[in-house]
Write a structure and sequence with these properties.
heterodimer; A: mainly alpha; MetI-like fold; 12 helices; B: Rossmann fold; six-stranded mixed β-sheet; 21 helices
Chain lengths: 294, 557
C-alpha cells in the first residue's frame, strides 16, 4: 500500500503529571475531614481540656462577657460556655454515630431478606412505608412524653424513621445483584441461603451503605439539635449544642454568643459529615460523580 | 500528504494514512500507524478481534473519540480530500450526517426512547437543511419507504420500544442515509440481531449502497458477514493493519499468519462426523416441559406468555445435545428450567432415574451437584470479590468436602482447563474473557457433574478463543464422559460440537435429530430458513476455498 511514513506528526505536549494524587486530593473533603477529626478529639478529651465543670452553676457569674477565666463568657446560670460547648460535642457525635450504627444493623438484614424473598418483601416494604411516613420530630415528642427524655429515647426516636431508608437501599441493591449469573451459579452449586446472602449479595451493599451512613449521621445530629431546642430532647444537665441554643434563645439579643458558638459548631459538624459523604460517594460510585468543570 | 493511489482510478472517498491514536496520559498506542483507503461505492470490511482497534478507527473518522481518554497523535484522515484530523467541532458536526454517517451495534440505545422515531429522523433534517415541516415529513416518509419499513405512517409515530430490533436498525439506517452521505460507517450493525434479521439488514445495506453509491466502512468480527458483503477486507490486530486486500484474495490466499489463524478458527458449518452412540444410559430426560409466564393487568385480565411448550429430549452419557434457536425461541428458558433456576409450569425433568421437576429446594439440593451450568457472560458469572480458588471450592465445600481438599481440587483443575497453577490465588478481573470462561468451566467440573449445561457459553468470545474453549469442552468430555447440553444461536458452533441438535422456534421444538441430519438435510422449513440466513455459508474458511452448496439447500437458494 502507498502510505507516507513521515514523522508521527506533531504530538500534543501534555504537562507532566507526576503528582496526580495531590491534584486529585480536593480541598473541601480534606478540610471537612480535618474539622471532623478536631470535633472527635474534642469529644474524646472534653474532661481534660474543659477549663470548668460544664454543669456547675455560679449565680454570681451569670451572663459574663468573655474574659481570661471564662474564655467565651458564661450563660444565664453562670455555667462556662466553652466547657459546655466542648462537652456538647459528645452528645452530637454519640447520637450521630449511634443512630447510624443501629439503623444499619437493623436495616441491613431486613433489606437483604426483603430483596431476596418476594412475599416477605411485599409485607415488609408496606411496614417500612408506614414508618417512613412518621415525621421523626413528632415521633420523638410522642416517645419522650411517654418515657421521659434521655439520650436513649432520643436515639430510638431518631433511628426509627431512618431504618426504612437503609432497608430500601439494601433491598434495591439485592434486587439487581440477585439476578447476576454468579449468584445463579452459587444456587446451582447448592450454596445455602445464608451463605448466598452473606458471601455473594451483602458485599455489594457496602459502598452505598457507607455513603448513606454519613447522611444518616448528619441528619441525626441535626434532628437531635432540633429536639433539644424544642425541649423534647436531652435535659440541660447534659449539655448539647441543641439545648444550649434553646436556652440561649431568651438572651440572644443581649448575649448573641450564647447561640452563635453552638450554632457554628453544629453547622461545621454537619457540613463536614455531608462533605465526607459526598467524597465517599465519588470514590465508591464514580457513576454518580457530579460533573465538575476542569 | 497522501500519495495518489496508482491502482485507483477515482479518488478515494476516505483515505486514512499512518493514523495513530493513544491514551494521552499513559502514552499507550491504541492505533499504531494504520492506513487504508475506501473507493467510491466500495464496501471495506474492517475485521479483527476485540481490542484490535477497529471501533476506535471508526470513532476517529467520525471525530467521536472520547475526549481526554483517547487522542489522535499523528497521521491524517481525509474525507473526499478534506483533512479531518484537527478540524474544528463545528466543521465535524456539519460533516456528520451530510457527508459521513454512522450506525451502531445496539439500535435500542442509539435511539432516544422518549421520542417517536419519525421525529428523530426529522431532527437530522432540521439540523442540516432548511425545509418546511411538510417537506421534512415527506422526505422522512420517503426514506422510511426506501429502508422497507412496513406501515410507514404508523412506524413514523412509534417509539423505539414498540419496534423490533430489525426495524430499529432500519430506522438507524434511514437516519444515517437521509442526507445521502458519501461514507457510511457501520460498527457491528447486525451483531445484536438474529441471523434471519441480520440477513435482511445486510441485504438492505447492499441495496441502498448500490442505489445511492455510498462507500461503506463495515466493522465486524464475523468472517461469515465479511464473505457475504465485502469488496475488500482490512484485517486488524493490536491497533495495526495486518493485511488489506480484495475479498477473494484474503479468503483464498491470505499472506499473513494472523489472517490464516483468524480464518482457521471460524467453525465450519458442515457438521462434524457423527460419533457412534454407544451409551445407552440416559443422564437427562426431559419430557413435555412447559413454562408459561402469567401476568395480570390492573383490571384482572390474565395474560399468558408461553416461553416453552411440549419440549422433550434425552441426553446420553458423554453425548452433546445442542438446542439451537433465535432470541425468544425459549432455548434459555429450557436451560434454566433444567437447572431449576426457574420452576417449570409442567412436565418432567429426570436426572438419571430421579424426577427433579417437582422437588422442593431442600430436597433438590443433593441433586444439584449432578448438573452444572456455564453462563454466557464470563464477566458476570464469577463473583468479583472472591478469589478464583474460593469460587471453585465453594461447590465441593457445600457438599461436605473439607476446605483443604476442596482447594486442592481447585488447584488440580487448573492444568486441566489450561490455566497456570497460581491462578487460584488471583481475582477474576485479572483474567481475560476466555480465561474466565475456563475458570467457570473448572468451577462446574469441581462438582464432578454428570451433565454440563452451557448457555451460549462461547458467544461472548472472539473466534480464536471460542475455538480453544470448544476444544477444551470436547477434550474434557472425551476424558470425563460428561454429557453437555449446549444452548446456542450459532449454527457453526452447533455443527462443530453437537452430536444431536434440537431446533426451537417460538417455544416449541420444530426439528430434532442428529447434527448431521438436521444441519445438512433439514426437514423443517424454519431450520432451512436459519441455515440459509447463516452468513458466509458458501465458504469453507478453514480450508480457504468456497463450499459446494449442500444439495438439500441448493434447491431453495
Amino acid at each position: 500500500m502507498a502510505s507516507s511514513h513521515g514523522d508521527a506528526g506533531a504530538l500534543p505536549v501534555t504537562r507532566p503529571r507526576f503528582l496526580p494524587n495531590l491534584a486529585h486530593l480536593r480541598f473541601a473533603p480534606t478540610l471537612a475531614a480535618l474539622c471532623l477529626a478536631i470535633i472527635v478529639a474534642i469529644a474524646l478529651f472534653a474532661p481534660l481540656i474543659a477549663p470548668h465543670d460544664p454543669i456547675a452553676m455560679l449565680p454570681t457569674q451569670r451572663l459574663k462577657p468573655p474574659s481570661a477565666t471564662y474564655l467565651l463568657g458564661t450563660d444565664a446560670y453562670g455555667r462556662d460556655l466553652l466547657s459546655r460547648l466542648l462537652y456538647g460535642a459528645r452528645v452530637s457525635l454519640i447520637v450521630g454515630l449511634g443512630v447510624m450504627v443501629i439503623a444499619i444493623a437493623v436495616g441491613l438484614p431486613l433489606g437483604l431478606l426483603s430483596g431476596y424473598f418476594r412475599t416477605l418483601d411485599a409485607i415488609l416494604m408496606r411496614v417500612m412505608d408506614g414508618l417512613m411516613a412518621i415525621p421523626s420530630v413528632l415521633l420523638a415528642i410522642a416517645i419522650v412524653s411517654l418515657s421521659g427524655s434521655s439520650l436513649t429515647t432520643v436515639m430510638v426516636a431518631i433511628t426509627i424513621p431512618e431504618v426504612p431508608r437503609v432497608v430500601r437501599l439494601v433491598r434495591s441493591v439485592v434486587l439487581s445483584a440477585r439476578n447476576e449469573p454468579y449468584v445463579e451459579a452459587a444456587i446451582a452449586m447448592g450454596t445455602r441461603l445464608p451463605a448466598i446472602l452473606a458471601r455473594h449479595l451483602m458485599p455489594n451493599t457496602y459502598a452505598p451503605l457507607i455513603v448513606q451512613g454519613t447522611y444518616i449521621c448528619a441528619s441525626a445530629i441535626l434532628t437531635e439539635a432540633i429536639l433539644s431546642f424544642l425541649g423534647a430532647g436531652i435535659g440541660t444537665e447534659t449539655p448539647s449544642w441543641g439545648n444550649m441554643i434553646s436556652e440561649g434563645r431568651m438572651y440572644f439579643q443581649l448575649k448573641p454568643q450564647l447561640i452563635f458558638w453552638p450554632g457554628l459548631l453544629l453547622s461545621v459538624c454537619i457540613l463536614s459529615v455531608n462533605l465526607i459523604g459526598d467524597a465517599a460517594r465519588d470514590i465508591l460510585d464514580p457513576r454518580l460523580k457530579k460533573r465538575t468543570g476542569v | 500528504m497522501s500519495e495518489p493511489h496508482p491502482t485507483d482510478i477515482a479518488a478515494p472517498v476516505l483515505s486514512i494514512s499512518n493514523l495513530s491514536v493513544q491514551l494521552p496520559v499513559q502514552k499507550h498506542r491504541v492505533l499504531d500507524g494504520i492506513s487504508l483507503d475506501i473507493a467510491p461505492g466500495e464496501t471495506l470490511c474492517l475485521v479483527g478481534e476485540s481490542g484490535s482497534g477497529k471501533s476506535v478507527t471508526s470513532l476517529a473518522v467520525m471525530g467521536l473519540l472520547p475526549k481526554k481518554v483517547l487522542a489522535v497523535s499523528g497521521g491524517s484522515i481525509r474525507l473526499e480530500g478534506e483533512e479531518l484530523v484537527g478540524a474544528g467541532d463545528a466543521r465535524l458536526r456539519a460533516l456528520r450526517a451530510s457527508r459521513m454517517a454512522m450506525i451502531f451495534q445496539e439500535p435500542m440505545t442509539a435511539l432516544n426512547p422518549v421520542f417517536p422515531v419519525g421525529q428523530q429522523i426529522e431532527e437530522v433534517l432540521k439540523t442540516h437543511l432548511d425545509l418546511s415541516a411538510r417537506a421534512r415529513r415527506e422526505k422522512v416518509l420517503a426514506m422510511m419507504e426506501q429502508v422497507h419499513l412496513p406501515n410507514i405512517e404508523r412506524v413514523y409515530a412509534s417509539y423505539p420500544h414498540q419496534l423490533s430490533g430489525g426495524q430499529r436498525q432500519r430506522i438507524m439506517i434511514a437516519m444515517a442515509l437521509i442526507l445521502d452521505p458519501k461514507l457510511l460507517i457501520a460498527d457491528e450493525p447486525t451483531t445484536a440481531l438474529d441471523v434471519t434479521t441480520q440477513k435482511q439488514i445486510l441485504k438492505l445495506i447492499k441495496e441502498l449502497q448500490q442505489r445511492m453509491g455510498t462507500s461503506v466502512l463495515f466493522i465486524t468480527h464475523d468472517m461469515g458477514v465479511v464473505a457475504d458483503i465485502a469488496d475488500r477486507v482490512c484485517v486488524m490486530n493490536h491497533g495495526q493493519v495486518v493485511e488489506t486486500g480484495a475479498l477473494d484474495a484474503i479468503l483464498r490466499s491470505p499472506r499473513e499468519d494472523y489472517t490464516r489463524r483468524l480464518l482457521g478458527a471460524v467453525p465450519s458449518l458442515t457438521p462434524r462426523p457423527p460419533r457412534p452412540d454407544a451409551a445407552r444410559e440416559k443422564v437427562l430426560s426431559v419430557s413435555e416441559l412447559a413454562k408459561t409466564y402469567a401476568s395480570r393487568s390492573l383490571f384482572g385480565q390474565r395474560r399468558e406468555t408461553v416461553a416453552a411448550d411440549a419440549v422433550s429430549f434425552t441426553l446420553g452419557r458423554g453425548r452433546t445435545l445442542g438446542i439451537v434457536g433465535e432470541s425468544g425461541s425459549g432455548k434459555s428458558t429450557v436451560a434454566r428450567c433444567v437447572m431449576r433456576l426457574i420452576d417449570p409450569t409442567s412436565g418432567s425433568i429426570r436426572l438419571g432415574a430421579q424426577e427433579v421437576s417437582d422437588l422442593s429446594p431442600a430436597a433438590l439440593r443433593p441433586f444439584r451437584k449432578r448438573i452444572q451450568m456455564i453462563f454466557q457472560d464470563p464477566y458476570r458469572s464469577l463473583n468479583p470479590r472472591i478469589t478464583v480458588g474460593d469460587s471453585i471450592a465453594e461447590g465441593p465445600r457445600n457438599f461436605g468436602v473439607p476446605a483443604a481438599e476442596a482447594h486442592k481440587r481447585a488447584r488440580d483443575l487448573m492444568p486441566l482447563v489450561g490455566l497456570p497453577d497460581d491462578a487460584v490465588e488471583r481475582f477474576p478481573h485479572q483474567f481475560s474473557g476466555g480465561q474466565r470462561q475456563r475458570i467457570a468451566i473448572a468451577r462446574a467440573l469441581a462438582m464432578e457433574p454428570d451433565v454440563l449445561v452451557a448457555d451460549e457459553a462461547v458467544s461472548a468470545l472472539d473466534v480464536s478463543v471460542q475455538a480453544q474453549v470448544l476444544d477444551l469442552l470436547a477434550g474434557l468430555q472425551a476424558r470425563l464422559g460428561i454429557a453437555i447440553l449446549f444452548i446456542t444461536h450459532d449454527l457453526r458452533v452447533a455443527a462443530q460440537i453437537c452430536d444431536d441438535v434440537v431446533v426451537m422456534h417460538k417455544g416449541r421444538i420444530v426439528e430434532h435429530g442428529t447434527a448431521a441430519e438436521v444441519l445438512a438435510h433439514p426437514r423443517a422449513d424454519y431450520t432451512r430458513e436459519l441455515l440459509l440466513a447463516a452468513p458466509g455459508r458458501h465458504w469453507d474458511f478453514a480450508n480457504f476455498r468456497p463450499l459446494a452448496p449442500a444439495p438439500a439447500l441448493a434447491a431453495d437458494a
